[in-house]
Specification:
Helix content is about 35%, strand content about 15%. It is globular and about 70 Å long.
Length: about 500
């Protein structure tokens, strides 16, 4: 009898436990997610018992997050850690996308989901190559993916480019977008004419910001510092210079349409630059044809002299010298070589005619491209192409080392280009794992080893929940100004908020 009672009691107890467990699945899942942000043994965040492949990604911009997203999706046992030099994630989505293009920044929502994935961790405030070496990362992980982008500027290699009043587009964009390293830029906009060298989307972004009504910009996430400078700007004319012709222009139709539709501005083109273009239209691919037709329409309709501000393309011109004023310190103009085109199609190139032209201007912005730097002496680097030499993302002669994004292919394309490129790298890495090219038989400590190493060097990381504190503070400050956010410009202030 007692045995039956004991058996019945055990059954009831077991059924109660089963019901409790069924009703608590969500709670248990929440607890497991919360545990990810608690220090594991030795003060390291994450599960110390994970046995799947451990992958490290260097760089918390679009390339890094897209690579992580694909790896997590393709391998249900992969653990991915993202290391970022700044305390804040998202790279060029945060610091490169124009403030009046908030829809492009919506991709941050996807990146946030990736960062909050139970098998993904974000470690900000870690300068790879300085705080920790690539070799140390390779010892701790089965594979390392370099996705650190291109933070340098391509030089124009002309006399006078170091004069006051000359800026790279990368630095100028970083200034109005709140990149900490550019917060002291303070461009002097007390001039009537600005010249932008280069005719890609970044060049048009800069032109648009210079000419946009301040009332349009003040509702964006542009920094208050730059907004104040732009409010006092005397720039009324922006010329966008390219070495080749209208059929080779690098911008997209969306960016061009925004310039054409910019309030209180008119297009200022040179009709001679468009000679013979109408006859060539019928043979152009549809996207190029639409872009060219829009330019030609702007040429015809852009002569409203009552409008105060203007912009225009200047084709067939290459910079040869920045001209200095009487003091020899400040730019007051630029000398351009006039070109003619030789060849056809993709092989069309600009050849100097020997003629020169001087343009008077007080602001010169070079938008001729970004440039990657070598990250570590042990990593192969092609200084001519400014990329890590690779085959489909596999770094040359280095097993277990990969790359994605601009450091892989050069600073070209839009965010969607980077997405596809990063997915390709992730797929190649997965293939190498499955083929045994990446040895998964050895257990790797991953972040547990690296964060312990960083602690001994006095480097304190910023985890994703700590970034979310920074995010909340920026949104709070922005709300009081009637804008989406007001970015923090000082790294020390970011860290103080993150660790509070």
């Amino acid at each position: 009898m007692h045995t039956l009672k004991r058996t019945a009691f055990r059954l009831m107890k077991r059924m109660t436990m089963i019901n409790l467990m069924k009703g608590s699945v969500k709670k248990i899942h929440s607890l497991s997610r919360a545990y990810r942000y608690l220090p594991a043994e030795g003060g390291v965040r994450g599960f110390s018992s994970a046995s799947g492949p451990r992958v490290c990604i260097v760089g918390g911009g679009p390339a890094g997050f897209y690579t992580a997203q694909q790896l997590l999706k393709a391998r249900q046992d992969a653990v991915v850690d993202i290391y970022e030099r700044l305390p804040v994630p998202f790279g060029l989505v945060r610091f490169g996308v124009a403030p009046d293009h908030p829809e492009v920044k919506n991709v941050i929502n996807t990146f946030t989901q990736t960062a909050q994935h139970e098998r993904c961790s974000f470690y900000g405030n870690v300068n790879v190559g300085k705080d920790v070496t690539i070799e140390e990362l390779r010892q701790a992980y089965h594979a390392v993916v370099l996705s650190y982008g291109a933070e340098g500027n391509r030089s124009m290699r002309i006399p006078g480019e170091d004069l006051s009043g000359v800026f790279s587009a990368k630095d100028f964009v970083g200034w109005y977008n709140g990149l900490p390293s550019n917060k002291e830029l303070c461009p002097d906009l007390n001039c009537e004419t600005a010249v932008i060298l280069g005719q890609g989307n970044v060049a048009l972004d800069v032109a648009r910001i210079l000419l946009s009504p301040v009332d349009m910009l003040k509702e964006t996430d542009i920094t208050q510092n730059s907004l104040a400078v732009l409010a006092g700007s005397n720039v009324r004319r922006v010329l966008i210079v390219g070495r080749r012709g209208p059929l080779q222009i690098a911008c997209t139709i969306k960016e061009l349409r925004e310039m054409v539709n910019l309030p209180n501005t008119r297009a200022d083109m040179l009709p001679n630059d468009f000679e013979g273009i109408a006859e060539a239209l019928k043979d152009l691919p549809r996207p190029r044809k639409r872009l060219t037709e829009l330019m030609m329409k702007a040429v015809k309709e852009g002569r409203d002299d009552k409008v105060e501000k203007c912009w225009g393309f200047r084709f067939f011109r290459s910079p040869v010298e920045v001209l200095a004023g009487a003091d020899g310190k400040r730019a007051t103009g630029i000398r351009l070589a006039l070109n003619k085109l030789e060849g056809s199609g993709e092989h069309t190139r600009a050849v100097p005619t020997g003629q020169l032209e001087d343009l008077e201007c007080g602001l010169i912005i070079s938008s001729i491209g970004y440039k990657s730097f070598p990250i570590d002496p042990t990593v192969p680097f092609d200084p001519r192409k400014a990329i890590v030499p690779n085959a489909m993302g596999r770094v040359q002669d280095t097993t277990g080392l990969y790359c994605s994004g601009w450091v892989k292919r050069g600073p070209t394309g839009v965010i969607a280009t980077t997405m596809n490129d990063s997915f390709d790298t992730a797929r190649v890495l997965i293939q190498d794992m499955e083929a045994g090219e990446v040895d998964l038989s050895v257990n790797k400590a991953g972040a547990q080893a690296i964060t312990a190493l960083l602690q001994t060097r006095g480097v304190r990381t910023v985890l994703f929940p700590q970034w979310e504190k920074i995010n909340a503070e920026e949104e709070k400050r922005g709300k009081s100004l009637g804008k989406p956010r007001e970015k923090l410009l000082d790294v020390d202030e970011m860290l103080k908020i993150a660790w509070s």
